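Entry 14. Structure prediction run on the chain below.
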Amino acid sequence: MIKLLIADDHAIVRRGVRDILSELPYPIEVSEADSATNALREIASKNFDILILDISFPDGNGLEILNQIKAIKPASKVLFLSMYPEEQYARRAMKNGAYGYLTKDSAPTELVLAIEKLISGQKFVTSTLAQILVEDLTTPHEKKLHETLSDREFQVMLELASGKKISDIAVAMFISPKTVSTYRSRIFEKLKISSTAELVCYVIENGLKQK
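Output returned:
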């Protein structure tokens, strides 16, 4: 019996993934979580073979959740299923220990293939991500400024660019407003900008999706 958790705050996504998983030739026991908090609670109390995790939750960020998962269940196999393009998050996800990354507009057959790979203990890399990784290895290129940001700085950057207040970001990320302000200063320094307006322009010009 393969035990699997689907963590996504949209019920329709969880239902769609369930339907796709029904095509697998294995007996599967599926659990669901509709928030980052509930996902971590489920993971801490049960042993899952595979975790299908969104990147964006109202109460947390998938990359940070991945780090927490690795701390409590190091052997967890996490597959991200996200609205964000691979160019934006996949590198960070795989570097942090994810077993795969798929966008939500992927074909159902790709999700089935990804799950089969994870069941066999292998990591799943799409052709798009494989090309990105090959180019990283074989074609020397200067990093874009946002690629120098830490995972938390990257998250704060997107939150700020979406128009959220520092106080709201602090609540969503479970940190103090002072810490968010510190991240904001670091982001401005690394991106060589001096205002939120410039930050918004940078995010748009570099094709970085916002929430």
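The chain has two domains: 2-138, 145-205.
Filed with the rest of this week's runs.
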